[in-house]
Queue: 4 jobs
Job 1
Amino acid sequence: MENIITIDEQMIPFKTGQTIMDAAMEAGVYIPHLCHNPEFEPHGSCRVCVVKVNGRMMSSCTTKATAGQKIENNTPELQENRRCLTQMLFVEGNHVCPGCEKSGNCQLQAVAYYTEMLSPRFQHFYPYRELDPTHPDVIIDFNRCILCELCVRASRDIDQKNIFAMSGRGIKAHLIINSPTGKLGDTDLNVNDKAVQVCPVGAIIKRKQGYMNPIGERFYDQAPIDEMGDIAEPHAGAKHHD
Amino acid sequence: MDVIELQAILAKEQHHPHYLLQMLRLVQEKENYISPQVMSFFAEKLNIPLTKVQGVVDFYSLLNTTPRDYHILFSNNIIEQLQGKEQLMKQLMSKLGVELGKVRADNRVCIDNTSCIGMSDQGISVLVNGLTITNLDEQRISEMVDLIEKKIPVSQWNAQWFEVKDNIQRKDQLLSTDFIAGSVLDKMKNNTADQIMEILKVAGIRGCGGAGFPLDSKWDFCRQTPADERFVVCDADEGEPGTFKDRILFQSYADLVFEGMTICAKIIGAKQGFLYLRGEYRYLLDSLEKILEKRRDQNLLGTAILGDSNFDFEIKIFMGAGAYICGAETALIESLHGNRGVPRRRLPYPVHQGYNKKPTVVNNVETFCLAVKALQMGGETFAKLGTEQSHGTKLLSISGDCKKPGIYEFQYGVSVREVLESCGADISNIQMVQNSGPAGNSLSPEDFDRKIAFEDVSTTGSIMIFNKDKDLLEVIQNFANFFVHESCGFCTPCRVGTSIIKNLVNKVRKGRGSNVDLKEMQDLSILIRNAAHCGLGMTATNHISDTLKKFPQIYKERLHNSESLHPTFDLDAALEDARQITHRQDAAAHLSA
Ligand SMILES: Cc1cc2nc3c(=O)[nH]c(=O)nc-3n(C[C@H](O)[C@H](O)[C@H](O)COP(=O)(O)O)c2cc1C
Ligand code: SF4
Ligand code: SF4
């Protein structure tokens, strides 16, 4: 059989070894995702990219494409799932979009628009989380962290610094920082490190850039996320940005 | 802890980063907590990031980070809860003057809850500094207070308190086995791996850990995967609330388990095996080490087993440290690497890439025993036990409302009713039977004529019985809390969804729920099952969807207003503080109801 899968009736070729997400990205078919970034090992934790493969729910970033797979992606059922997962991420942390520097450049917000999220649906958890302003060039606001572990992967695999890691368990799972004080300012993080570029939300932000680009002219102000692609790394099928 | 002691622990665990959790557990055992200095020490010596050590310590619930002399954990399975565990715990807390989960100001004592410790048939049970005490009552609580205030070390407490009975109520083929260590290895001595596999294929054993996967296929996949090394792992995490069968197997049949692992090693060509023993079963460790030592003396372990120069095999006992998720095989393998117990992706399977990325067999404790039993009695004879699709026998851990809680061995095919009759349950008075723990299914009396077998009522063996006088929503709340506590936190639906479910159950219990909330619970149950990364999340809402379907009245009778949305927030209740402060209870100080 030929290396072809079908996503919502559209025939999509793939190379052996590619995941469904890889193949979709290459073909310019948008499957919503938050913890995935094609530069890194697939993670599969946000579950926003779950699709139906031959009737079975699977995360497209961790499932290998195999010839003949019939995949449902943009269906009301899956959009509803994704909206619900996005709502969960919103109520789990403290996301105050109107006051957030990342507003308009944030993938969580963009996926919320894409999935037509109109309310938080669930009661907010209002967790107590800190903001760490100790680094001269970078701020980390744990209130907005969605635990995608992209900074963990980037710092470990590319920067080779292991600055970020996961701790805790269950709803208490949280990001920690590798320094004697646990503060970012005491690490050797550099503003140009990969880990600083990959955060899909407003948790890791560079100082002095927040409002350089006015609201209304930001990345996802130009077009919805299914056209724009990821904020960190534009991929095939998405327009370029700088 | 001084550096010499820490060095000794490092040496005992071979300076190996995979044994980080083992080292931390040894420190915890010695000191009841793990200090920042200890964490830094291991990070430096093992050459791993400090955050790695911190992340591991913070993942496993039996490890602490602040000092205390006595660490007391009450098993908060629903069975103990319904027997009055809460009252006993409150007594102990008030006598000692401690708050739940907070260390007393003098760093003497801390009291907290923990998930089921595998003693549901032994009355109210606790772990004190990691050791099991059963059958707690007011008398024992008072004496305990005395011992603690007098600073008597736990090793000098009344030895009787630490007794854990076998409590076998019914034996069938497996438990009536008269087994001499090494006899089956000896019997199979001159058989090739293919010949042994032939017997096991005929026997048709299915895994007892939950999924019922055929043992022979698993072992075949593993041995047929090309590799220079393979591993055998015995999953003794036994974390499903209400099960305690593995405990009995280790107390009285440990040689069967080790023999099964060794046979597996012979077939797949493994040189190293791991017994992953849940941390809550620390009390078993010393006796198990002795049995392993004896097997080494008898040449049933070690090099050239029974004189076969091609057959070397060792077993290391690896202790867990309080994490239900580590029963899931890929989380278990992560834990064996000294990591946080976060499940891996579904593929590749452990039989292809498991421990050290090498082909690995992971089987339940009972499954290994059944393999030995089948080889002892012959494949055909074994296959005649049970039903056509479920061969052999099953150990059931029965607790709750019955006269004789304990272990019952039945052949597959037995009806739920027969099981309930044999343990002395008052069948006409039963409201619900929870099968396979909170992750399993909820049986109503209409299910009692169904059969225990993979093709009908499939079970991990946990059977908890609830009579009509029990508040089922209390049961549901306990289960929902369990999943919140045990979710590993990796994926969104399980990490966040289990908390939302817990809050909704709580809302309904408090009489503030409406039909909208029930619909939400139903929808979320499906979403979490569909979207979760691993088996924990996929089964974490079974108890919700099952009871909504089979016992809708337990929810409906608590609803506040059955049509529209009703807020969780109770404005009048929130004014209570203000009323207290102002000493007002007049009508104007209340919002009209
Ligand atoms: C959350 C979770 C907990 C589990 N706990 C256990 C356990 O305590 N013991 C066990 O044998 N299997 C447990 N399992 C099943 C294992 O993943 C695996 O299927 C089993 O150990 C395979 O052995 P078997 O083929 O002998 O059944 C668990 C699975 C999940 C998803
Ligand atoms: S800080 Fe950003 S990149 Fe790192 S885990 Fe949180 S959301 Fe992901
Ligand atoms: S389903 Fe739950 S336990 Fe499993 S990976 Fe997700 S969060 Fe962890």
Note: The CA atoms of residues 142 and 189 of chain A lie 17 Å apart.
Job 2
Amino acid sequence: MRTISAIEITKKVRELCISAACILEPDVAAALRTARDTEQSPLGKEVLGQIIDNFEIAGKEGVPMCQDTGISVFFIDIGREAVIDGSLADAVNEGVRQGYKDGYLRKSVCHPLTRVNTGDNTPAIIHTSIVDGDRLTIKFAPKGAGSENMSRLKMLKPSEGPIGIKTFVLETIREAGGNPCPPIVVGVGIGGSFEVSAILSKKALLRKVGAPNPDPEVNAMEVELLGLINELGIGPMGFGGTVTALGVHIETHPCHIASLPVAINIQCHAGRHKEVVI
Amino acid sequence: MTEPIKITTPLSEEDVMKLHAGNKVLISGVIYTARDAAHKRLIELIYREKELPLELNGQVIYYVGPTPAKPGQVIGSAGPTTSGRMDAYTPKLLSLGLRGMIGKGARNREVIEAMKKYKAVYFAAVGGAAALIARSIKKAEIVAYEDLGAEAIRRLEVVDFPAIVVNDAYGADLFQQGVEKYRRAPRD
Ligand code: SF4
């Protein structure tokens, strides 16, 4: 057994919160630069130019690239040979508290009914899984509301099949228009149960932009959907253009013979995801 | 690309009538920030016929909730939020003289109609370009609802704030025009 210190987790989470808000991951940055080269609308190109200038300024000056520094979502893989010398949730929440305060990040979490702000961006959303080994992998993906609010979930009839899935995705993206700050990455969770499809769609966004699903059949749908989405003409910020999405990531899970859950989680161009292994 | 048009707030009806969907603008002067919670309070004051903490006539409201300023900064990162959430409150404010709004994403029918009726304009700033936009903000002070934190109403002095006209006072809509132009998918 390997002991992992809760204090170490807090320290790492604090750093993750600040660096994710200010420094765009290289895969997203590269995808946005390519998008600027391929976008056909002159206004769209200019918008992408501003987006690129913006993340460069943010990285250089150590300020948040977007004012919506998001609700703090974590996916944590716990090695089954690791023990934590304290509460994981407490350690993570303390890291969020410190990171959002010390990094001058916006506290964007409130009670769902009274709308009173919790004041420190906690509680974090923490998804855990037990994996092999003795490490702790913390994946952090702060999520802004602009793109999160455009997400949808639908229980399709199995007879609707792949065509029904694609129609639902295209409908969702078209209705979202400029709201989720395109160019976007589209996470799609297909199968499982009601809640599993939603979690899969969010997990899909943790992949590097454009990284294919290893299953060739699923990847074929990713490629097809990306093409179809970019034919919608929404473009950067919805001003019209040929780059609406940078990638489509699909995750699947077997489901009940009588159901076909499909969830769509949209990620804006400020695609913040960072990972650390302890 | 064409050069941006420079405009200065407060905006007159004449200023607004010169702007067309798709124009790039650089805004200078005073603008006010307000988002969901502040809008709710403003509308409550209006219905109770109380005085507002800001003069709406000719003004521009920027939908933003900035990050806290670091020591030495005027304001933190300050990009636009989704405007649609303010749609329910907007026609009332337009009827009281509000001339412009800055945000991101589309407005509903009622707001677009009210912009035509009361001669106002809706600008979009680039969502997520919050560090870049903050550079055009030279001064920021809270004028109301400090308890709302990021959602308080702030008076901003801006110089060459970059934005794009989405809905003009003639009823044109850049989102529709732009998407129409680049759509290759068949319409259903
Ligand atoms: S959708 Fe993303 S880029 Fe746009 S404002 Fe929200 S967090 Fe920022």
Note: The helical segments of chain B are 13-17, 36-47, 90-95, 109-118, 130-134, 174-182.
Job 3
Amino acid sequence: MPEVTYLEAIRQALFEEMERDPSVFCLGEDIGAYGGAFKVTEGLQARFGEGRVIDTPISEAAIVGAAAGAAHMGMRPVCEMQFIDFISCAYDMLTNYVATARYRAMLPCPMVVRGPSGGYVRGGPFHSQNPEAAFLHTPGLKIVYPATASDAKGLLKAAIRDDDCVLFFEHKYLYRRIKETLPATDHVVPIGKARLAREGRDLSIITYAATVWKALEAAEQLEREDGLSIEVLDLRSLLPMDDDAIVATVRKTNRVLIVHEDTRTGGIAGEITARINERAFEWLDAPVLRVTAADVPLPYAPPLEDFVLPQTADIVRAARQLARY
Amino acid sequence: MGTRAGGSSNGGRRRNGGTTTAAQPAAGAAMRAPDRTDTARDAQSGLSRAQRLELYYYMRLTRSLEERLVNLYRQTKVVGGLFRSLGQEADAVGSAYALDRSKGDILSPLIRNLGSMLVQGARPAEILRQYMAKGDSPTRGRELNIHYGDLVRGFIGQISHLGDMVPVMAGVTLSFKMRGQDRVGLVYVGDGATSTGAFHEGLNFAAVQRCPLVVVVENNGYAYSTPVAKQTAAAQFLDKAAGYGIAGERADGNDVLATYQVTKRAVDRARAGGGVTLIELLTYRRKGHAEHDNQSYVPPGEIEHWERENDPLDRYSRALLASGDVDSQELAAIDARAQQEIDAAAADAEAAPMPVGPDALVGVYADPPAAEMLWFRSGVTSAVAVHERPAGWGTHDA
Ligand SMILES: Cc1ncc(C[n+]2csc(CCOP(=O)(O)OP(=O)(O)O)c2C)c(N)n1
Ligand SMILES: [Mg+2]
């Protein structure tokens, strides 16, 4: 089996799910003949036709709202945001309409909203965002954010089959940078389960998406230079969150560093910290620390972006401090 | 309000301040011997010879500046993407030229309206610094390409989210109305951006309030890969004006004088209290969405057709020469002047420093120290000095 990129893994999932279930369809800007801004949907329209791979006007609220309506009627729409930054234009639809539909009106919304997310690409403030925290606070939505090609494929399949709305964040820095041989079988990764990316004894790094790779890099360096054994937990599902996996790693290493690319205040690290306090406080030997982006809009110039976003060296420095505590 | 010398050699440049001779019969103009004085007015547009040459200068400056940016992009000196307005220079320049900077008119450009910013006094050195993400660029490396503004010179920087500038400009022009100011605003949107909720809400609000606002819909045939037919079921964008209860006009966006005239009418209407006008300008996007886009979705021959038959600079230089009061040496001299300005600006911009990391942390709020230093970066000092705005960059009332 050839190795497959993170991007290709997403494309495969779309293909296979559309093949498997005629109620699955895609809608978004430039996703048809053009294959999407990043070519994630390339070949999809040629295979499934304009009726199931729909080029929309530049109308994110309509994309999401129409998906909800179709989902009520038994379809399984997959919406593409050209960049996830534009999901803000559909915030009302998602948080008010979609998220409440089942609870308030017993209306199912089996739909996916996916799109290229994240920074480290010199995209500036509007092509680099990580808006997951803005939706974590909304009961009724699910959120996944894979770090590997295998999880990208398996989680997207799970998301499409899920009976609720799943926000599927794809890290554009990972699109073509990572590769993996995928299982040949119908590969579905359950939503709500974390993945142990590296086992360790001395300290746990809890993270997700692109910073999983930075954490792994840091872990290797810390082992080499400091003899520290670092565990890396890749959450991959943010809502629901795998509390059991979090508690298990805390019990094992007793020291936790949370790393995310999103800004700090109101970021998901705060939520994880609260859960640790509630369920595993007595297992901690040190305060939970976090390495995150600084609280600023993400700037464009390389030295500025590099400074604002968490880097491997930051994780190493923070982990050393935590190990010494 | 500051009157910044735009760097063009047309010292006391600017606008015919409302005087117009557009009522003169065109036939009369043809029979007169060519008048080569700079004040000689064109019967159709009402623009003086000097002004018509100035239009040419801004169109040429736009094109040459973008060509330089392409070179820099290929040398990987541009950070991020590069967006061209090749073939659309007339619509941006002609429409912006209809504003009156001496009155404090303000526009908000989109990605293909570099020309409109140059008309308002943006300088090539700023544009180049922005694209290269330099530390002394207008946004200090925080924002990209032409996403910057200067309220004094009269342009407000866009954000990427399409349509958002329409409600913002509704508010800008609402403030003109509230304060009884004799000022007009102009906002550009692409054919694609008309599909956003923000476009609709902003336009409707401005219409209801009868704000002094001109909305230019730049119909260049495509939104990224999406043709207009997939963007709207309306036969023309002009038809939308009726639905909002506002005036609407449509013009050839590749004819700079036609673009100027149609916008001038809308600006005059807005200034006279006539409210919002929607103008549809017909043009064509000859390059891809950005430099990376290979335009595989464009029917064969279409781009070449527009290049051959409907290049706005070719058309305008031919018209100027045919008018008999401009000769080709004059145009060549303007080309050379634009090129020299760009050469000098590029040298400056290339030599300019990149920002330094800690500069990223200041400027989020009015009362610094705004952003706290990251605890895991202790020992790194913040460069609070860059909190200041670039020289000459300010609010209108400051
Ligand atoms: C709300 C929103 N959705 C999607 C995008 C991504 N996007 C950037 S430019 C563009 C096409 C714009 O087309 P148009 O408005 O016609 O302007 P043109 O590029 O033709 O000048 C798209 C879809 C965006 N910037 N904003
Ligand atoms: Mg367009």
Note: The interface with chain B takes residues 29-30, 32-34, 37, 55-61, 82-83, 85-86, 88-89, 122-127, 289, 291, 294-297, 299-308, 314, 317-318, 321 of chain A (CB under 8 Å).
Job 4
Amino acid sequence: MTRADIHCDNIQKSFGAVETVSQLSIVFKSGQTTALVGPSGCGKSTILRMIAGLETPDTGSIRIGQETPRQVARRGGLSMAFQDPSLLPWRSVRSNIALGAELARKPVDRVDELIDLVGLVGFSDHRPAELSGGMRQRAAIARSLISAPDVLLLDEPFGAVDAITRRRLNRDLPPLWRERKTTTLLVTHSVEEAVLLSDRVIVLCPRPARVLADIPVDLHHNRALPETNAPAFRDLAMRVLTALEEAA
Amino acid sequence: MAVGRFIVTAVVFALVWEFLARAQTGSMIISGPVAIAEYLTNNSGLIVRAATETTTNAVLGFLWGNLAAMMLAVIVTLLPRSEWTISTLALLVFCIPLIASGPILRVLFGPGPGPQITLAALAVYYTTFLAFLVGLKAVSQNWTDLMGVYGRGRVATLFTVRLRASVPYLFVGLQIAAPAAFLGAMIGEFTGAERGLGVLTLRAMRGLQTDATWSLACVSAGIAMLGYGCLGALRRKFTPHAPVILFSPKRLDLGRSITIQLIGFVSVVGLVFVLWQGAMDAFGLNPFFAKRPGDIFRFLSEPAHLNTLLAALGATLAYAVPGYLAGLGLGAGLAILLMLWPPVARATMPIAIALRAVPIITTAPLLVLAFGRGFTGTVAIVAVMIFFPTLVACLQGLRQTPAQIVDLFESYGASRFQLLRSAQIPAMLPALFASARMAVPAALLAVTTAEWLATGRGIGVLMALTSSTSDYNMLWSCVVVLCLVAVVSYAFVAWCEKKVLGIYANEQLA
Ligand SMILES: Nc1ncnc2c1ncn2[C@@H]1O[C@H](COP(=O)(O)OP(=O)(O)OP(=O)(O)O)[C@@H](O)[C@H]1O
Ligand SMILES: [Mg+2]
């Protein structure tokens, strides 16, 4: 696996007269998981979309290793789970998940494994319309994982997922991307989830988006999930929360 | 249960029809079911041969026209920059009244089914193009984003997402196209074929054979409705929810300045002339019947020729304009009336949609029988042709009134009239104008066909005359002038639309 840090260099983006992102420079280390938190509308999705190559910054540049986001996307090295599951209504769950591999031109061989992982066993032949909102989101997560991307962008992937399944996914997903050394960006509104899943939490403040706090999380020395009521965890969560309150 | 009620309705309908026919025997206007059945059994061989011929041509035209329409829509999707040019060209071709291109196709193709098939194709391609294009574009940004994340471009998006997402829209378009193809094939036969239902109809009308005219009209309408029904069944099988489509292109982009629109328009018209000249030269067509733009210009520079043409055009417009306005007015008026009684409107909608599918031209001979060959008959044909599509579009438009606005009015205890005047009619205007634009070529088609069949005046007759006397300069001039009238009227209606919507329906459009 090539070392492919994501370099955001002085990026700026406006929609009409509103400057959404201004002079933002961040490096996301290859193989690390970074959580982005911040108030609603502060530009988290916009940053993810720029890294995915769906939007281009007005000024500044984004590089993933030596490549541009578009180049990484074109060789299937990128995938994203959107805020909205965006499943194709005429395809079954199985075929929607397989689509991730088809589009990335990767072998379609792990569909069942992933259906199992996101807890959709028994629903693989259902259409999205027959699923609940949380189940659709899980299908979308599976679709983003199946292409084994170098860069994984998760935009509030667990928003509609119920608490129990969310805990299970919180437990099962990180080992997957750590094992593959996937560079993961996770947008979430849950402070606990941010600390739990990531190696680093970035708190953004709005209009224009700016890094308010950059908090390293060093709880992942062993493979097990951090203990959420350990003092170290609570300290970190508190720091993130304080920064968030300042941002809002 | 439903079948039982249908049979009872059909029997009552047939009895009333028969009664009217018997009461009218002396005047030779209505043939009853018994007379029709008798005629059909006595002439079954002839009718079956003719129906097979016409249906075959209609099916071939349906296939070619829809294929062309789908390819055009795919090109526009893959090359978005070409949209304006291709859409405008497609609209220009759609504005050519079918009956006007019939005689020219006849001389170009010679005998045989070529013109009928071409006209059937021309009759279907535009609505399919519009419906399919709407479908190809009706793709949420989420899906194009998904494709973008994997670095996949327009072609992959077309195959993975757009084609599949457009299927319901395509089916709605194809369903409308089925009776239209039949109409095109019939009109092709009116302009001088050897075989087919159109030929028999023409003969029956000229011979004042009431039974034959009615029988042929019933057979034609029946086949067209059967096509509509079959495609409807197919559509329901594949896509349970039919989307609502306004069969009308978008208005010209309001953002562009009028100068840019004019320049664009003039260059497209120029392109048409270049294509026209180029096609004639490329196929090395005989200048005796294949006239070029220059020939027409020289011919019309002669004042005598121009005057003949303009006199005929004047006569035609004197029929077309009242018919056009009557059709639009009656359609919109009835839609509004029905809206005041919602249960009636709900019940009428399916009937109106079904009747919209009857190719009115196949029943034109009956209207001529009923209203005569003069002003009333011709205006009636034009009005009926426009009435049903307008009624359907306006009912759909009235229903588009946002539910919150209706709730707001009701929360203030506003009356039905207030709701209608302040909320529903403004919401209906875009649909009304959309049908008004699409009705322009339809009105010219109806009036020229009626003239060709019956009246003995106007540009339709001039075309019939000149095509039989091989006066090809005049024939081509008629076609060119009709197209110009169609395009200018279309632009005029679009201009009125912009003005009116700017005043009354701005917020509903946003
Ligand atoms: N395509 C667009 N056109 C116009 N404005 C946009 C567009 N996309 C985003 N914005 C604006 O940019 C700002 C940031 O939007 P973004 O979706 O990135 O926020 P977010 O941090 O993801 O919010 P949330 O947590 O609610 O998802 C918002 O104010 C939004 O209105
Ligand atoms: Mg967002």
Note: Chain A touches chain B at residues 49, 52-54, 70-76, 78-80, 82, 84, 86, 88, 90, 99-100, 103-104, 147, 153 (CB under 8 Å).
